[in-house]
Write a structure and sequence with these properties.
Its cofactor is [4Fe-4S] cluster. The chain is of the alpha/beta class. The protein folds into 2 domains: 56 residues, Orthogonal Bundle (DNA polymerase, domain 1); 291 residues, Aldolase class I (TIM Barrel), CATH 3.20.20.70. The protein is 34% helix and 17% strand. The chain contains 13 helices and 11 strands. The strands form 2 sheets. It has a 9-stranded mixed β-sheet with strand order 1-2-3-4-7-8-9-10-11, with helices on one face. A two-stranded antiparallel sheet has the order 5-6. Strand 8, helix 8 and strand 9 form a beta-alpha-beta unit. It starts with a helix and ends with a helix.
């Protein structure tokens, strides 16, 4: 009997790796299009090709899709262009604040009333947005709120970009305490498995890093894409030529436990995903982050820290950084965060192997900070 089964939790047997349930496609949006496709779209509407650049400037630089803001366009063209190319994709349903208003979690309804969440966090020297790439998740990790929801559908590129634009506008407009500022960092650690929606996620990344006016002009080094270990997609990402940070959600160094905590491990083992992670570093020069949710009496044993340290150092030095994360329990969960002295010992063991290790900040825990909790609450 496995450790998870001994703890009284049934191991999920089915992963939703197949295509998500069929739904209508989101309306075509400006952010779904390449620069060349934007030119074609505006000319099809009877406008001059240079209107595409004007629209891109408004959307990516001024962060607006409101025709009233586009005063450099003829009045007769504004509504035509915005109606056709900027359909509303996200509707804000609910927000929750923590940390004096500097952490804001937003529940969105998409065009088909599907629910997703994003979290905007302002720190002293940076701002970070955590975005969702899927509605729900098919990876079935039993300690994860989103995993408990199951997979509804993939998000389109524009649905992800819109989360980013609206957060960037909120910061630029000074809606977050501390005065107007820019969005610095983007993490694909919200609802969903980003690499299971590869096309839309990489399309979002390309628009995020594209220089103005064709994109948001962010640094690829300030973008993190997480995965539970979809090895073929990890290898594909390594060949994209975009040096984003890869974050591997490992959560256990041994196959027996990891197969319970992260069921996709039955397809790609711990050693296979660590080899792919090392390959990502070799291809990009970007240090990989290992995410490890510390769960009391489940995966927080000192010997597991030693095993993890041994597996990482066996693949070389300087290629990896570990982020232990105190578990944010979901409603009804039998699992909880590790005790402080256990967490300290786990970190000390990893550092003893020469592995750079930093406890992850858990901002927003008082507002159901784990992605999926707000959506699950509304669905209840």
């Amino acid at each position: 009997m496995s450790a998870a089964q001994q703890a009284g939790l049934k191991t999920p047997l089915t992963l939703q790796m197949a295509a998500p349930p069929r739904r209508g496609k989101p309306p075509r949006h400006f952010a779904d299009l390449s620069p060349e496709e934007r030119v074609a779209a505006v000319t099809e509407l009877g406008e001059k090709p240079f209107r595409a650049k004007q629209l891109a400037t408004h959307y990516f630089s001024h962060l607006t899709a409101d025709p009233q803001d586009m005063t450099d366009l003829p009045a007769g063209s504004r509504d035509v262009l915005t109606d056709a190319l900027f359909p509303p994709l996200l509707t804000k349903v609910r927000t929750m604040e923590a940390d004096g208003g500097t952490t804001v979690k937003t529940l969105w309804h998409l065009y088909d009333q599907v629910k997703v969440e994003s979290v905007l966090m302002r720190y002293t020297s940076r701002t970070t947005l955590c975005v969702s790439s899927q509605a729900g998740c098919g990876m079935a990790c039993p300690f994860c709120a989103t995993g408990q929801l199951g997979l509804t559908r993939n998000l389109s590129t524009a649905e992800i970009v819109e989360q980013i634009r609206q957060a960037a506008k909120s910061l630029a407009d000074g809606e977050i305490p501390g005065g107007p500022t820019r969005l610095n960092n983007l993490v694909f650690m919200g609802m969903g498995e980003p690499l299971a929606n590869y096309k839309a996620v990489i399309g979002t990344v390309r628009q995020a890093v594209a220089p103005a006016p064709d994109g948001l002009g962010m640094s690829a080094r300030n973008i993190t894409v997480s995965t539970v270990g979809l090895v073929p997609a990890m290898n594909k990402l390594a060949k994209e030529g975009i040096p984003v940070t890869l974050a591997l959600s490992l959560h256990a160094p041994d196959d027996e436990l990891r197969s319970d905590l992260v069921p996709i491990n039955t397809r790609w083992s711990v050693d296979e995903v660590l080899d792919a992670a090392r390959g990502y570093f070799d291809a990009t020069g970007r240090r990989v982050s290992i995410e490890y949710a510390l769960i009391k009496d489940m995966n927080d044993h000192a010997w597991r820290a030693d095993l993890l340290g041994e597996k990482l150092t066996a693949r070389g030095q300087g290629w990896v950084h570990v982020n232990p994360i105190p578990l944010n329990p979901t409603p009804g969960s039998i699992w909880t965060a590790s005790e402080q002295h256990v967490e300290d010992e786990f970190v000390a063991r990893l550092r003893g192997h020469g592995i750079p290790t930093t406890i992850r900040d858990t901002r927003g825990s008082d507002i159901d900070g784990a992605c999926g909790q707000l959506a699950a609450e509304e669905s209840a």
